[in-house]
Every structure is written in C-alpha cells, then in structure tokens.
Amino acid sequence: MVGDRSRVADGTRERSLALFGQLSATVDEDERRRCRDELVSVHLPLVEHCARRFRHRGEPYDDLVQVGTIGLLKAIDRFDTGRGVEFSTFATPTILGEIKRHFRDKGWVIRVPRRLQELRITIAGSTDELAQQLGRSPTARELADHIGASVEEVLEGIESANAYTTLSLDAAAERADGSAGSVLETLGASDPSLDHVEVRASIRPLLERLPHRERRILLLRFFRGMTQSQIAAEVGLSQMHVSRLLSRTLQDLRSSVQEG
User: Are 147 and 155 in contact, with CB atoms under 8 Å apart?
Assistant: First the structure.
C-alpha cells in the first residue's frame, strides 16, 4: 500500500514537472491554458486537503475548494522550477492563505478594520496555545503579554468577534433532551438577566448620585457595550483616564452597596 502511494506521488511529480516544462516553453495561449488546466487537475487533491482543514467553520466545503483553487492558480503562475522546490511545498502556503483571506474578508457580517480581524485571529491562536500550557483559559492580561499588545487591545479584539459570521436560525442544533432540532427551536428560554432586576433597582439611586461624567462613562461601558477606547473618544479623555475613572467608580459603588 505504501509502495502504491509512493508510485502515485512519483507519477504526479513527474507529470507536474513535464507540464511546467511545457508551460514555460510555449507562448501559445491555448497551449498555456491547457497546461494550466491540467496542472490544476493534477494538484486538485492538494487543494481539497487544505480545504478539509477548514471544514465545520460555517462555510460550504465546495466554496472552500473553489477559493483554494484560486490560490493554486496563483501558485502555478508564480512557480519557478529552477528553484529546486517541490511544487506542493511552494503552493500550500498560497492555497491556505487564499482560504484564510476568504474567512477574513467574506465572513464578517459587520465590516471591522483589518487590524481587528487579524488581531482576532492572533488572539484565537494564542488562546489555544496558552490554554495548553496553563491547563486553563488564559486571562486578558496573559494574552496581552503573550502577543505584545495592551489589555484594551485584546478586549477590543475579542469583542470584534461579535461581528463575525452569524448562524442561521434554521441551522441544526441539539435540544435540551438530546434530540435534533434547529437553532430557532432552542430560543425562548428564561432570560437570566431577570435574576439581576432587583440588583439593578438597588443600584439605581447610587448611579443617580454619581457625578455626570462618571455616570455617563458607566452607562457607555455597561449599557451600550462600548470599549474604553471608544468611550475615551466619546467623552474627550484619554483611555488611561477612562480606565482609572471606571475602576474608582466601580470601587465606590461596591463600597456603597456593602454599607447599604
């Protein structure tokens, strides 16, 4: 069985080299197109292998193969047989890069800056890496130290994930009893925020006694879900100043609640 696979690989390599030789030796457009089409056919299993790595991420497998094939065509056009590198080794990063770019550029429901898209990907990879090292989920501070960013940037990157691809209400989902159903059928459970109604009612008088600026910052942060950077721009302060005001105000509220 291993010998059979080896012979198949050797045959693919030889056929690929022959086609690249024909491609570089001819200027006839029809012949070049035929060589490129056959090279795509020969190396399509490589594209399929790369696409399978991204299955179950919300994109149809056939679409991923199509996107990966674009990367394969780019690799074919850029490949130089004189480099002494296997084409599959040369093409794989280009194919994977095209698929990843597809997720970055096409998978966002709300457009967010490329910086945040790339930061989210970095955070996701670092989270898995640190979780294996620590045996638990890393904190925002640990992630920030690991990737060389600020805690605020890490939190902003995590929050940007809310703009990523949404799930259809008709998508398959497991019911509480273990049977199959749809996402729509799982909706309508008790709202856990109802448990906090009394708490909110008790702190309302405390919020009303706060200075206007501190009360506004709290409302922007916890009721409108804005980041500290966004709040800083909104109220005309530095992010560091907003952070200090938030910390001090929350500490004062905790103390007031405990005394009450």
Answer: no
**Nearby residues of 61 by Cβ (< 8 Å), 6 or more positions away:** 51, 52, 55
Q: Which two tokens mark 16?
A: 């690929």
Biggest CA pair distance of the chain:
87
Compute the Cα dihedral for 8, 12, 15, 18 and give only its sign. Answer: negative
Which phi and psi angles does 75 have, rounded to 5°?
Answer: -65, -40
The answer for residues whose C-beta is within 8 angstroms of residue 224's C-beta and 6 or more apart is none
Q: Tell me how far apart the alpha carbons of residues 5 and 14 are, in angstroms, rounded to a whole number.
A: 14
Of the pLDDT bands very low, low, confident and very high (cuts 50, 70, 90), residue 157 is confident
How many CB atoms are closer than 10 A to CB 135? 7
Residues 6+ apart with CB under 8 A from 140: 151, 154, 155, 158
In which band, very low, low, confident or very high, does the pLDDT at 69 lie, cut at 50, 70 and 90? Answer: very high
Could you tell me which of 103, 125, 102, 117 has the C-alpha nearest to residue 157? 117
Beta pairing class for 172-174 and 180-182: antiparallel
Model pLDDT for residues 211-238, shown as the tens digit of each residue: 888 888 888 887 778 888 889 888 888 9
pTM: 0.42
Q: Which two structure tokens, joined as six digits, stand for 203?
A: 């702190």
Indicate if the pLDDT at residue 186 is higher than 70. Answer: no
Q: Is the pLDDT of residue 180 over 70?
A: no
Strand partners, 68: none
Helix (H) or strand (E) holding 182: strand 180-182
Give the Cα separation of 44 and 46 in Å (integer): 5
Selection from 100, 93, 63 nearest residue 78 by Cα: 93
| Cα gap 165→43, rounded to integer Å | 30
Distance CA 35, CA 103 (A): 30
